[in-house]
């Protein structure tokens, strides 16, 4: 029994030394990370402001949407395409205060496709 207790005590001492080393490394990493500029902080996001009617913007992007020559994260889903477009383009016209919301853009594109291309499914 004394042998088992001694082995357990030695094992605990080794684990305590390992824990001390882990804590020391964690403090070093924290100090390093305090002075890091992450990539997203270095990238300046550019926004393009389209000053015109929503219908005019939809007419401009409709040929691209219909072409199916684009992919967003490997898929050709129109909603993902519009979300990506909405990240870059902001639509501003005299009828709305501020910028057009994504849901309004999506509705306008869906309405446009339903009117002009009823056989072309819009998803």
What percentage of the residues does DSSP assign to strands (E)? 5-15%
Low-pLDDT runs: none
The coarse silhouette is elongated
Q: Count the strands?
A: 2
Query: Helical segment tally?
Result: 5
The largest pleated sheet is described as: 2 strands, parallel
**Rg, nearest Å:** 29 Å
Structural class: mainly alpha
Strand order of the largest sheet: 1-2
Order of helices and strands: HHEHHEH
Number of domains: 2
What is the end-to-end distance? Answer: 72 Å
Mean pLDDT: 87
Helical residues, percent? 55-70%
What descriptive keywords fit this protein?
123 residues, mainly alpha, two-stranded parallel ribbon, 5 helices, 2 strands, elongated
Write a compact overview of the structure shown.
With 123 residues, the protein is mostly helical. It has two domains: 2-39; 45-116, no CATH class. The chain has helices at 2-34, 39-42, 54-67, 78-88, 102-116, and strands at 48-51, 89-92.
Please provide a written account of the structure:
By secondary structure, the chain is mostly helical. It has 5 helices and 2 strands, in the order ααβααβα. It folds into 2 domains: 2-39; 45-116, no CATH class. It has helices spanning 2-34, 39-42, 54-67, 78-88, 102-116; strands at residues 48-51, 89-92. Helix 3 crosses helix 5. The longest helix is centred in the N-terminal third of the chain and has 33 residues, at 2-34. The model has no long low-confidence stretch (mean pLDDT 87).
């Amino acid at each position: 029994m004394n042998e088992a207790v001694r082995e357990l005590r030695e094992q605990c001492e080794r684990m305590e030394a390992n824990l001390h080393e882990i804590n020391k490394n964690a403090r070093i990493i924290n100090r390093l990370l305090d002075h890091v500029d992450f990539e997203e902080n270095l990238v300046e996001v550019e926004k393009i402001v389209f000053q015109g009617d929503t219908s005019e913007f939809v007419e401009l992007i409709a040929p691209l949407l219909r072409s199916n020559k684009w992919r967003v994260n490997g898929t050709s889903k129109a909603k993902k395409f519009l979300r990506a477009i909405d990240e870059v383009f902001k639509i501003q016209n005299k009828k709305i205060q501020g910028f057009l919301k994504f849901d309004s853009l999506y509705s306008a594109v869906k309405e446009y496709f339903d009117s002009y291309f009823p056989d072309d499914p819009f998803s």
